[in-house]
Amino acid sequence: MEVFKIYGDQNYWSIYYKENIDINIKEKWYLARNGISVVKEWEKADVKIVFRGPKRRIKPDIIDFGGTVGFAITSHAKDILEDLLVPYCELLPLYLNGEEIYLVNPTTILDCIDYDNSVIEVRPPINRKNFLKYALKKEIEYPPIFRIKDEDYSIFITVEFVQALTENHLVGYEIMKIWNSEE
């Protein structure tokens, strides 16, 4: 079993809310970044491209949202990945230049860190945990996409999800292997 972190690749596009958005939308996004369900209260909002990287001319399927804390997907990516995303995530609609896209909010949070074998650096002043080496519990059956308790904002995926991304030639993401159960 292998587990990866997934990010929107900032070499393509980075998006964020347009100016003057309702404070309630920002509050809901904060909850979503923490894996809390917000779908019942979600209001579609307009987003804009705030940064275009070196691959700016290529429309990404996976789009960085607000830095390394989340990503959105196009309708095309949603059609391909939906079976791997739902029921582990909410797909929260947004509008980018009039096109509907979806903020991915993983609501499956696993208490799966093997603290005895992980290497963690605690950063003051708020004592944020920075994982230098991940070790995960081997006895857990990992869903295709999830968050990890005590790991701020990061989104994790399994090989099954990685295969769907690569086999369908989706672009706009970065992955980083964080754990292999065989090592």
Explained architecture:
This protein is of the alpha+beta class and 183 residues long. The chain is 17% helix and 39% strand. It contains three helices and 13 strands, in the order ββαβββαβββββββαβ. It has helices spanning 23-33, 75-85, 159-167; strands spanning 2-8, 13-17, 45-52, 62-65, 71-73, 89-96, 99-106, 109-110, 119-123, 128-133, 145-148, 155-158, 173-180. The chain has a six-stranded mixed beta barrel with strand order 2-3-6-7-5-4. Strand 11 and strand 12 (155-158) form a beta hairpin. The radius of gyration is 16 Å and the shape is globular.
What's this, in brief?
This protein has three helices and 13 strands, in the order ββαβββαβββββββαβ.
In sequence order, what are the helices and strands, one letter per element?
A: EEHEEEHEEEEEEEHE
Beta-strand content bin:
35-45%
Radius of gyration over alpha carbons?
16 Å
Unreliable runs: none
Q: Output the number of helix runs.
A: 3
The 3D shape can be described as globular
Structural class: alpha+beta
Q: Name the average pLDDT.
A: 89
**N-to-C terminal Cα separation, in Å?**
10 Å
Report on the biggest sheet: 6 strands, mixed, barrel
Number of strands: 13
Topology of this structure?
Elements (H helix, E strand, L loop, with lengths): L1 E7 L4 E5 L5 H11 L11 E8 L9 E4 L5 E3 L1 H11 L3 E8 L2 E8 L2 E2 L8 E5 L4 E6 L11 E4 L6 E4 H9 L5 E8 L3
Parallel strand pairs: 2-4, 3-6, 8-11
Antiparallel strand pairs: 1-12, 1-13, 2-3, 4-5, 5-7, 6-7, 9-10, 11-12
